[in-house]
Amino acid sequence: MWRNTDEGYGWVAVVLHWLAVVVVVGLFALGLWMVELTYYDAWYRRATDIHKGVGILLFLLILARLGWRLVNPRPASEPTHSRLERVAAAAAHVFLYVLLFAVMTAGYLISTADGRAIDVFGLFSVPATISGLPGQADIAGDVHLALAIALIVLAGFHSLAALKHHFIDRDRTLLRMLGRTPRPFRSSTDSRREA
């Protein structure tokens, strides 16, 4: 199924989710590596151009993901989830999106500080609408790094929560985001009752 159902996520949501995960982790690793490069390194400009271009594509991907989420509601929560878990999950998702957009906005402000547009692999360019502010590149750079670290930390907790649901609670939370919609978890007590 390509659309979400009450039982699980469709393939569109699954692909958008995991593609965003790979891109965010990749951009974080690339960003940490490229700031250590010197002007004379062969990858000095190339790594920066890749980081900027992929960052813009990530922005479009996240917009598409939010649009898909609006027209294709999420599956119902697992019945085993407590109210606290549901509230924490909803808050984590909101903060993940807020951090994503904040990181990308700070990256945009770094990239356009000198007034030049951002070229996206020769496909299109994003104009510099805000530039020339005092210390713009340096301040936006510090904010970009701090927010990126916060995003990775929150994503790490999000991942740990999914693993906790899978290995400790033994519910379908992780399996549903892998595109699998197995039958609801049944305890051994339930199986004996049916026998």
Structure explained in plain terms:
By secondary structure, the chain is mainly alpha-helical. The chain has helices at 11-34, 44-71, 83-111, 136-169, 173-177, 188-194, and strands at 118-120, 124-126. The chain has a single domain, classed as Fumarate Reductase Cytochrome B subunit. It has a two-stranded antiparallel sheet with strand order 1-2. Strand 1 and strand 2 (124-126) form a beta hairpin. Helix 1 (11-34) runs antiparallel to helix 2, helix 2 crosses helix 3 and helix 3 runs antiparallel to helix 4 (136-169).
Topology:
Elements lengths: L10 H24 L9 H28 L11 H29 L6 E3 L3 E3 L9 H34 L3 H5 L10 H7 L1
Antiparallel strand pairs: 1-2
Question: Quick gist of this model?
Answer:
The protein has 195 residues and is mainly alpha-helical.
Note poorly predicted spans. 185-195
Rg is: 20 Å
Number of helices: 6
Q: Could you tell me the strand content as a percent range?
A: under 5%
Specify the biggest β-sheet: 2 strands, antiparallel
The amount of helix comes to 55-70%
| CATH architectural group | Up-down Bundle
The helix/strand class is: mainly alpha
Pattern of helices and strands? HHHEEHHH
Under CATH, the topology is which?
Fumarate Reductase Cytochrome B subunit
Q: Report strand order across the widest sheet.
A: 1-2
First CA to last CA: what distance? 32 Å
Global mean pLDDT? 92
The total domain count is 1
Shape: elongated
Counting DSSP E segments of at least 2 residues, the number of strands comes to 2
CATH class: Mainly Alpha
